[in-house]
TrEMBL record:
<dbReference type="GO" id="GO:0030170">
    <property type="term" value="F:pyridoxal phosphate binding"/>
</dbReference>
<keyword id="KW-0808">Transferase</keyword>
<dbReference type="Pfam" id="PF00343">
    <property type="entry name" value="Phosphorylase"/>
</dbReference>
<dbReference type="GO" id="GO:0008184">
    <property type="term" value="F:glycogen phosphorylase activity"/>
</dbReference>
<keyword id="KW-0328">Glycosyltransferase</keyword>
<keyword id="KW-0321">Glycogen metabolism</keyword>
<dbReference type="InterPro" id="IPR011833">
    <property type="entry name" value="Glycg_phsphrylas"/>
</dbReference>
<comment type="function">
    <text>Phosphorylase is an important allosteric enzyme in carbohydrate metabolism. Enzymes from different sources differ in their regulatory mechanisms and in their natural substrates. However, all known phosphorylases share catalytic and structural properties.</text>
</comment>
<dbReference type="GO" id="GO:0005737">
    <property type="term" value="C:cytoplasm"/>
</dbReference>
<feature type="modified residue" description="N6-(pyridoxal phosphate)lysine">
    <location>
        <position position="679"/>
    </location>
</feature>
<dbReference type="GO" id="GO:0005980">
    <property type="term" value="P:glycogen catabolic process"/>
</dbReference>
<comment type="similarity">
    <text>Belongs to the glycogen phosphorylase family.</text>
</comment>
<keyword id="KW-0663">Pyridoxal phosphate</keyword>
<protein>
    <recommendedName>
        <fullName>Alpha-1,4 glucan phosphorylase</fullName>
        <ecNumber>2.4.1.1</ecNumber>
    </recommendedName>
</protein>
<dbReference type="InterPro" id="IPR000811">
    <property type="entry name" value="Glyco_trans_35"/>
</dbReference>
<dbReference type="InterPro" id="IPR035090">
    <property type="entry name" value="Pyridoxal_P_attach_site"/>
</dbReference>
<keyword id="KW-0119">Carbohydrate metabolism</keyword>
Length: 827
């Protein structure tokens, strides 16, 4: 048997946990105890790190009673639970969030003041757990926050990467990646629980044997395994006494590590084998939206999903649970295709471990999963080579083939003679290298398939998964993404939060649509002035952060124009750069007098996947353009380009509240949703954006007067693509564009070779049609400038952006998942 074995639990008398008293004196005492007995130092010898670890442990002990009580309550009143399966959780710092949600901020500030401890410095000591790449991982973190705040029974399952997303540094303008050693100085938020470790098997072969009444059955004979050790994190709800669990798995060698090929009873080899096992959770793959097809990546996926499903079935459910009722107890939400191998895994457990027949196992499995797709880029869809799956997970490959056979039989029955349709829909991509199309497997098994914004869900139905939508129209639905207002407004933006609270009270924090009540204040000149002063305070705060990081300061009177997101061609950082360079070139050539340039600071934040050459060249170019523009006196200080390194959640929380303009300029039809767009609008930035992803919904809600729309719409993009797109013609026919590109290619910003190569690719290929949208973008930026010149009009629009962004709370997203997908009940 490969199922995990748990030691017996001894049921002692129920003893509710008691939290320490919520007063400053008690907190000081608890903190000093943690410092002395937990860290082993007296206050006067303690470093900032000691203080951070002690403070985190103290805050954690206040949350502990909630955590235990929530778990006990859920055991006593079992409701359908959400098992959120995600390979990434981009959590951001924990201390601030724990203080906010537990309402301990005031007590802690006073306690630290009394002890003479610099709370800001202590908070800055925390290294955020960067266990994700970008939007997909941050979305998972927002969702678990909202579920805790809404008191929905949820466990988040994922991977405790020893190294999260790399730390980005710039060396002479080029991105250099540094390993993220987030665990090095201590990990005060996690609870390791080795007793609930789950063995995860790999490799080997499958054999037949005679089961009950001589029935032929199959069984997996794996040839190596690792131990998945859970680390539990609390997920506190906002001011509601709830704390859910996030369970992240770490790979360790099993005690009797029997990887035969590595271990021949030789001690040194055995130790090496241990390292081999630990490799599985060693590092987060740093590619966002481009699967690497690496064996280790598939190992990671199976590792965390097998551990999670095993943990739920054999560790969380009561021992005598009737698995026929599994779909009433749990819904596993698949965050993209990364956890989709969980589908054949549940089938395997039901068939091979629990002895069910296929039809019964499938009836259960096909009601336990729902699938969220996050992309439209064909190259982002995961396809695993059949040969690899066969080698690593032979029994799963058999099960996938069987699922496919039965599925294709149903397709043939519905569409007789339509062989082409059968080929298109098959889970197995045929041809030289056969592959498993994970999105197809997910769609076949899931109760629901959702996209992440209205346009994206529409395109899924009409294009990417059109055959499936014809077969099962009722399976397809939309849930537009959202963001947690606790982290991205209350915590990140105290000046705006208190302004809002003064105007409409605090109910909006858990009911974000109530921000609508701010609408009338857009007409109040006193409120507008206070709104501007909140923005200024946020800019000052951002400046102090940039100063500490050794990055250039932002001039106070500039428009702060931000583009923060992963570096990807489809997001079109190059389009923004072309606008910057054309503004500069206009001044250089005398076409535009410097005094007509609106004072702006264009701020970029972006990591490039380490293997993504074009993205890295773009970063290098942005940095070179920045250094020339920032020091050219001809611009009269009116245009600055800032590119602080290592954009992450912590920096996002500083930057977003300070922004005036939000750049959301992806090629229409490519950005599934975006969530930075929501955070920026919610913090009062106006958007300049294409009709893409959630921009469509933002514009509808905030109104055309408060949004700068430009560029081709998705159908026009498709039309141009099919007609044949020739960027060289656009280049030749637009003199402003041509001058900007020529200036770059001339080597004006250094490294002529690199510049020419990048511009050559742009003029020759331009896969994401930046040139086609250039003029429309420049025109829209002129409208931005005109509006910014009218301070009162701009502020009015900014306030309306805040007031009308309540829809983008992840609380609303969670309600939509509950209504449209999970059918689970709140409470
Ligand atoms: O549009 C975003 C979306 O807002 C999309 O690109 C992103 O997910 C966000 C949340 O829904 C996304 N990330 C990935 N695919 N889509 C991805 C794929 C592979 C590895 C890591 C991330």
């Amino acid at each position: 048997a490969t199922g995990p074995q748990f030691p017996p639990t001894h049921h002692l008398a129920d003893q509710p946990a008691v939290a320490p008293a919520r007063d400053v004196d008690t907190f000081v005492q608890e903190f000093l105890e943690e410092l002395n007995f937990g860290q082993g130092v007296p206050l006067d010898r303690s470093t900032i790190n000691h203080q951070y670890l002690a403070l985190a442990s103290t805050v954690r002990s206040y949350l502990m009673a909630d955590w235990l009580a929530t778990a006990a309550r859920r055991r006593a009143h079992p409701a359908k639970m959400v098992g959120y399966l995600s390979a990434e959780y981009l959590l951001g710092r924990q201390l601030g969030n724990a203080l906010l949600n537990s309402d301990l901020e005031g007590i802690v500030e006073e306690a630290m003041r009394q002890l003479g401890i610099d709370l800001a410095a202590v908070r800055a000591q925390e290294v955020e757990p960067g266990l994700g790449n970008g939007g997909l991982g941050r979305l998972a973190a927002c969702f678990v926050d909202s579920l805790a705040t809404m008191d929905v029974s949820c466990i988040g399952y994922g991977i405790r990467y020893e190294y999260g997303i790399f730390r980005q540094t710039f060396v002479e303008g080029r991105q250099v990646e540094v390993p993220d050693t987030w665990l090095a100085l201590g990990a005060p938020w996690e609870f390791r629980n080795p007793e609930r470790a789950v063995q995860v098997d790999f490799g080997g072969s499958v054999e037949s044997y005679a089961g009950d009444q001589g029935r032929p059955r199959r069984r997996w004979r794996p040839d190596w395994n690792v131990l998945a050790v859970p680390y539990n994190y609390m997920v506190p709800g906002y001011h509601n006494g709830v704390a859910n669990t996030l369970r992240l798995w770490s790979a360790e060698a099993t005690r009797a590590f029997d990887l035969q090929i590595f271990n021949h009873g030789d001690y040194a080899e055995a130790v090496r084998a241990q390292t081999f096992a630990e490799n599985i959770s060693k590092v987060l793959y740093p590619e966002d939206s481009t699967p690497q097809g690496k064996e280790l990546r598939l190992q990671q996926q199976y590792f965390f999903v097998a551990a999670s499903i095993g943990d739920y079935l054999h560790g969380t459910l009561p021992e005598d649970f009737d698995l026929a009722r599994l779909p009433e107890q749990i819904i596993f939400q698949l965050n993209d295709t990364h956890p989709v191998i969980g589908i054949p895994e549940l089938m395997r457990l039901l068939l091979d471990v629990h002895g069910m027949e296929w039809d019964q196992a499938w009836a259960i499995t096909s009601r336990c999963f729902a699938y969220t797709c996050h992309t439209l880029l064909p190259e982002a869809l995961e396809v695993w080579p059949v040969s690899l799956v066969e080698r690593l997970l032979p029994r799963h490959m058999e099960i996938i083939f069987e699922i496919n056979d039965r599925f294709l039989a149903a397709v043939r029955a519905q569409f007789p003679g339509d062989d082409d349709r059968v080929r298109r829909m098959s889970i197995i991509a045929e041809g030289g290298d056969r592959g498993v199309r994970m999105a197809h497997l997910a769609t076949v098994a899931a109760v629901r398939v959702n996209g992440v914004a209205e346009l994206h869900s529409q395109l899924l139905r009409d294009k990417v998964l059109v055959d499936f939508a014809q077969l099962w129209p009722e399976k397809f639905t939309n849930v537009t993404n959202g963001v947690t207002p606790r982290r991205f407004l209350v915590s990140a933006n105290p000046p705006l939060t208190s302004l809002i609270n003064d105007a409409i009270g605090g109910g909006w924090i858990t009911d974000l649509e109530r921000l609508r009540e701010l609408e009338p204040y857009a007409e109040d000149p006193v409120f507008r002035e206070r709104f501007r002063s909140a923005k200024r305070a946020n800019k000052d705060h951002l400046n102090s952060t940039l100063l500490a990081a050794g990055t250039a300061q932002l001039p106070a009177d500039h428009m702060l124009d931000v583009m923060v997101k992963r570096l990807h061609e489809y997001k079109r950082q190059m389009l923004k750069l072309l606008h910057i360079v054309s503004t500069y070139e206009g001044v250089l050539s005398g076409r535009v007098p410097a005094e007509q340039v609106t004072p702006r600071t264009c701020l970029f934040g972006a990591k490039a996947a380490p293997g993504y050459a074009t993205a890295k060249e773009t970063i290098y170019l942005i940095n070179r353009v920045a250094s020339v523009i920032n020091s050219d006196p001809k611009l009269d200080g009116r245009l600055f380009v800032a590119f602080p390194p290592n954009y992450n959640v912590t920096l996002a929380q500083r930057l977003i509240p300070a922004a005036d303009l939000s750049e959301q300029i992806s090629l229409a039809g490519k950005e599934a949703s975006g969530t930075g767009n929501m955070k920026l609008a919610l913090n009062g930035a106006l958007t300049i954006g294409t009709d893409d992803g959630a921009n469509v919904e933002i514009r509808k809600l905030v109104g055309d007067d408060n949004f700068f729309l430009f560029g081709m719409r998705e159908p026009e993009v498709a039309e141009l693509q099919s007609r044949g797109y020739h960027p060289g013609e656009v280049y030749a026919s637009n003199p402003v564009l041509k001058s900007a590109i020529d200036l770059i290619a001339s080597g004006h910003f250094g490294d002529r070779g690199a510049s020419q190569a990048l511009m050559g690719d742009l003029v020759g290929n331009d896969r994401f049609m930046a040139l086609a949208d250039f003029q429309a973008y420049v025109d829209a930026q002129a409208q931005v400038d005109a509006k910014f010149a009218d301070t009162e009009a701009w502020t009015r629009s900014a306030i309306l952006n805040v007031a009308r962004s309540g829809y983008f709370s992840s609380d609303r997203s969670m309600r939509d998942y509950l209504d449209r997908i999970w059918g689970a009940q709140v409470h």
